[in-house]
Amino acid sequence: MRSEAPVRITALTVADIDAVCALAAEIWRAHYPAIISAAQIEYMLAQRYNPAVVREELARGDLWWDKLLVNGRMVGFASYFLLRDTGAMKLDKLYVHPSHERHGYGRMLVDRAVTMARACGCDALVLAVNKHNAAAIAAYAKHGFAVVESVVKDIGGGFVMDDYVMRLDV
Hints:
By secondary structure, the protein is an alpha+beta fold. It has helices at about 15-30, 40-50, 50-60, 105-120, 135-140; strands spanning about 5-10, 65-70, 75-85, 90-95, 125-130, 145-155, 160-170. A seven-stranded mixed sheet has the order 1-2-3-4-5-7-6, with helices on both faces. A hairpin with a 2-residue loop joins strand 2 and strand 3. The longest helix is centred in the first third of the chain and has 15 residues, at about 15-30. The model has no long low-confidence stretch (mean pLDDT about 95).
C-alpha cells in the first residue's frame, strides 16, 4: 500500500551525488550490521558510493541511476546496467530508507528497472543479494525473482560477497 505523499522516480543527476552517497551510508549502516561486519560495510561503501565512482557511472551509456523522491526528498535509489552478451540487465543497487519501507517504493523501483530492461531488449533482470539478507530475498521473491545461482566473490580487502543470484524474466 502506497503512501499518499507525492512520489516520483527520476534520473539521478550529478547534483544528487553527495545526497545519494549520504543516503546509501545511512541505509547501509542501519541495515547491514546483522549481516556483514562494520569493517566490510565501510569498505563496500567506499568502493560503491564514492562520489567519483558515482560520477563515472552517471557518464556511462549503459548504466542508469534513479532516485525515489517522496515529498521532494530522496528516500531511495536504484541503479542497473546492461550485462553485455547475456540479454539481461543487472539490478545492481536498490535501497529504500527504513522509514519509508513497506509503502510499495521498492516495487516502483523494480518496475522502472523492468521497463528499462524491456526497452533495451533484455529478456531478464538479474541481481545479487547476500544469502543472509532474508528480508530482501523475500521481497525479491514476492516480486517474481527466483534464485538461480549461489556465488562467492572476492571483493578485495579480505572480504567476500556471499550471494544468491536471482532472476526475473521480463
